[in-house]
Amino acid sequence: MSFDVERIRRDFPILATKMRERPLAYLDTAASAQKPKAVIDAISDFYSSHYANIHRGVYQLSAEATRRYDAVRKRVAQFIGARDPREIVFVRNATEAINLVARSWGEAQIGKGDEIVVTTMEHHANIVPWQMLAARKEARLRVASIHEDGSLDVAQLESLLGPRTRLLAFTHVSNVLGTINPVAEITAMARARGITTLVDGAQGVPHGPVDVASLGCDFYAFSGHKLFGPSGAGVLWGRHAILDAMPPFLGGGDMIERVSFKGTTYARAPERFEAGTPDIASVIGLGAAIDYLEGIGMANIAAWEHALLVHATEALSKVPGLRIIGTAKEKAAVVAFVLDGVHPHDIGTVLDGEGIAIRAGHHCAQPLMEHLGLPATARASFAFYNTPAEIDRLVAALEKTRDLFA
Fold first, then answer.
1. pLDDT one-digit tens code per residue, 82-99
2. How many domains does the chain have?
3. Catalytic residue (choose from 315, 364, 374, 396)
4. Which of 261, 294, 327 is the last residue of a domain?
5. Where in 230-333 does DSSP place strands (E)?
6. 344 and 286 within one domain
7. Is 406 within a domain?
């Protein structure tokens, strides 16, 4: 395929650096993506020439900062196929977005004896808030299982959806297995039963086109730092009718209509959920990241990353003693693996000596690790700025690791 990866790599200053006196091979994008110069420059320019607090000042600098901030809300809505910018709530990250739903929607909608369904492959961010809610409300958390290849057992999940199920929360793409779940199929099952759905899109939005209207969910959450933008800016998308009926999550400035000691009335969504001064510059950076990604094309990004996944799967499968964890047919560019006789942390340490950055551990998915019977895995995750040559370096380093521990 025609894809000028070397030109793209020049857009990311950090990729020109060295680690351990070797060229950096950054293979940990699932944890956090690197930032193109366009994002770095947008943040620097905002702080240097345009910074002021938003939604408060009548002076030109504040009005211009407000205009820029609000323009990103419209930009995000277009990017994910939202019908209305008022459906975009800015938060710090996907974790905060999920907690917002748990604390606001969940407190009002979940009662004693109700059920919340999640899946075995969830990140802790899409487990712990629901456990906390269930404990507060005396509700029940039920868990859908996965097949041996790491794909979701959709039939078993459907069997869990009963008359007391109020919420189905599941990931778009597993951060460990790489499994891409059939979101539209799953949300249709829930919608037919009147069940609200939340999708953790932290690994979905950065790596291919997303259209929330087509997905059919009620909430969709993602983090800006995984979307090649800055940390500190994330997004909760929700159907406006649902958001507008939810009580506030935090109280303070900018989320109110009127405050008096007799009582307070609240702004409508999304302002209702954005108390206090936000991370304005990070939101500006998120807008720049979206502009950059769309300049490349999300379909082009998805195609290149799939080619990297195919190459990595074939190459890693030839390493003696290496076993890939997660081989679902529909899969993103994430490869978790174990190597006979070598702890994943030791793998990560040896690879670091070769200038290769991967993740090693439980990946904030301890229930999944328990299901797999593993304490941890190593994980290489790829983005459109990675190359087949970097994957070949990974394979060579793993063969060296195997020899060191033989």
1. 999 999 999 999 999 999
2. 2
3. 364
4. 294
5. 234-238, 256-260, 263-266, 322-325
6. no
7. no
